[in-house]
Prior knowledge:
Bound molecules: 2-oxoglutaric acid, fe (ii) ion
Number of domains: 1
Radius of gyration: 18 Å
Strand content: 15-25%
Distance between the termini: 31 Å
Order of helices and strands: EHEHHEEHHHEEHEEEHHEEEE
CATH superfamily: q2cbj1_9rhob like domain
CATH class: Mainly Beta
CATH architecture: Sandwich
Amino acid sequence: MTTITDLYPSRGPAEVAVPRRDPVVWSAPGAPGPIAADRLEAFERDGFLAIDQLIGDDEVALCQRELERLLADPAVRADERAIVEPKSEEIRSVFEVHRISEVFANLVRDERVVGRARQILGSDVYVHQSRINVKPGFGAGGFYWHSDFETWHAEDGLPNMRAVSVSIALTENHDTNGGLMIMPGSHRTFLGCAGATPEDNYKKSLQMQDAGTPSDEALTAMAGEYGIKLFTGRAGSATWFDCNCMHGSSENITPFPRSNVFIVFNSVENTAVEPFAAPVRRPEFIGARDFTPVR
Ligand SMILES: O=C(O)CCC(=O)C(=O)O
Ligand SMILES: [Fe+2]
C-alpha cells in the first residue's frame, strides 16, 4: 500500500494557514497553447484569467435553451443531481451537466475550453465536477467564502493543487446579480479550516457551507491583504480560476438571473484518492471517480 502525504491538513482542531506547495501553472514555460505567455503569468500571479468572449452568441443561445429544457424536465428535478433552494424550492444547481446533456458535453470537449485547462495543468485533464449554478433573481442564495481545493482535498481526496475551474456566463453577470468574487493572490496560501467533517456533510454544504468555512478573522486578514475582485461580463464571457482561490458570491435579489456553468478540470496526474479529512467519499456526481481524459 502506498500512502500519500497530506500536504494540506484541514478540518483539525484549529485553523492553520500554510504556503502553497504546488505550482499554479504546470506546463513548461513557452509550451504551446491558447493562452498567451503574459496572460499565463497573470494567472500564476493572480489566480484567475478573465475572458470577454469565450463562446459566441449562438452557442450561448443553445446553452440557454438547453438549460431551460433541463430545468423544465421533471426527471432532472427529481434527480439527486438537482439541488433545490431551501426557501423557494427553485432549482439552485444542476450537477454533472456534462453527463446529463450532450450540449454541455460538447462544451467541455471544445478546444477553447479544454485546451486552456490542459495548458494550465500541463497534462491531459478529466472533469472532476461540472455544475450549473442557476441563481434566479428575486432572492436566490449566494455561496459563502471558500477555497474549492480545501473541500476537494478534504472530502474528495485530490492530493495536489492541480485543478482549475472555468465559470462561463450564460446570462449577463452584472455588478448587482451575485457575480463571482475572488481574492486575487489568495491561491498561494492554503487555509486549513477548523472543525471535523460530519458524515453526509455535502447534503447541507450544497445549500449552505458549514465545515470548511474560514473564520471571520482569516477572511478579514485575507481581504485586507488581497482585496476582492468582482467578475462581471456579458453572456459568453468566462473566468478561469485556480482551485485554491478564496472566492464566493452574494445572493441575487435583482430580477436578472445569473446562470453560470462551472467546469472543474483536474490533471490525470492528480487523480482522487481517499478523502484526506472526511469519513466517507462524496458521491461521484460531485467528485468524479472516472478519470477518463477529455478528448
Ligand atoms: O456560483 C457561484 O457564484 C460560485 C459557485 C462556487 O463557488 C462553487 O460552485 O464552488
Ligand atoms: Fe467554489
